[in-house]
Amino acid sequence: MRILLVILFYTTWLSFTNNLIQALISLSNLDDLNNSESIDIKEVCEKLEKSYAEKLKEKQISLQIITKKPLTIQANREYTEIFLSNLLSNAIKYNRKKGKIIITLEEKSMTLQDTGIGIAQENIGKIFDRFYQESESRDTNSFGIGLSLVERIASIYKWVIAVESEKWVGTTIKIGF
């Protein structure tokens, strides 16, 4: 029995360490702005919807993508996918069962709204700090660097991020491109 527990602990620790290393490598390599291309944000959102389909189904979360106007940006595709993936991942992870996520695309902006646990007003300014996690949302599968990656990518491209949130109601994130 002890051997099984040790193996389980070691496997979990190894996975945790590998994920942390990969995340830190991503964070440190963001200065490479080469390979900029025209990116259809709706296409990226639909790709991410497919890759997160199992997690959405598991929590019975509905995801709706509304295109008011086509949104195309000039950026590195990998960084854009990391940026949007972290936002969507958090919207899923911190959402309630049978919750909703609505992504609205406009000509120069995108809004991601969820029905999750929300963020206390006094902590909204801290969510982009590296390794920060609000106490109610602490997750053993998270390192608290996803939103610092989001903020770093946004600052590189001079994208503007606005966050509104109400505890236990949800969060709205608006990105101006």
Descriptive account of the structure:
This protein is 41% helix and 24% strand. It has 177 residues and is α+β, with helices and mostly antiparallel strands. A hairpin with a 3-residue loop joins strand 4 and strand 5. The protein has one domain (2-176): Histidine kinase-like ATPase, C-terminal domain (Heat Shock Protein 90, 2-Layer Sandwich), CATH 3.30.565.10. The model is unreliable at 4-18 (pLDDT under 50). Strands 2-4-5-7-6 form a five-stranded mixed sheet, covered by helices on one side. The chain has a two-stranded antiparallel sheet with strand order 1-3. It has five helices and seven strands, in the order αβααββαββαββ. The longest helix has 27 residues, at 2-28. The protein starts with a helix and ends with a strand. It has helices at residues 2-28, 41-51, 53-58, 77-93, 146-157; strands spanning 36-40, 62-67, 72-76, 100-105, 109-114, 160-166, 170-176.
Offer a concise description of the structure.
By secondary structure, the chain is an alpha+beta fold. The protein is built from 5 helices and 7 strands; from the N terminus they run H-E-H-H-E-E-H-E-E-H-E-E.
